[in-house]
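Moderator note: this is an archived Q&A kept for reference. The question asked for a predicted structure of one protein chain; the sequence and the answer are reproduced below.
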Amino acid sequence: MSTDASSLTTQDLEFLRRPLHGFLSVAGGPLPPQPRPVWFEATDEGTIQLFTAPDSLKVRRLRRDPRASIVVAAPVGERERWLSVAGRTTVEPEGAHDLCARLAARYWDLEDPVRAADLADIMAADQVRLVIHPETVRRYQY
């Protein structure tokens, strides 16, 4: 069943708090869109946030047109489920490194020295936080 809404439900937030990859598409890009896998975090306020370099192509496109969407799907071996969130996106100069540290701990084993070094490299670079403010939420669960 697929449903449309403008906000995330408690069940959506529970699903999005798992260490799953999201596939981000931004407006103003090539046609057809070319989604990219990303780490993300669903907030208690019902937004979706991620981090990226301030001079990345996605940031340049979002500054021209702030629309973006993210699709998250359950992994193979689980019952089919996906969630799509689309809306206006803001580029926030603060909070990206804190978000990066939380997400790295969620997605990686930071006891692994290679991953710890990878995180140090990311933290040494400038980052911005992208925040998707949901306007349309679509979901499917079989």
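Archived answer notes: The helical segments are 10-16, 57-64, 96-107, 113-124.
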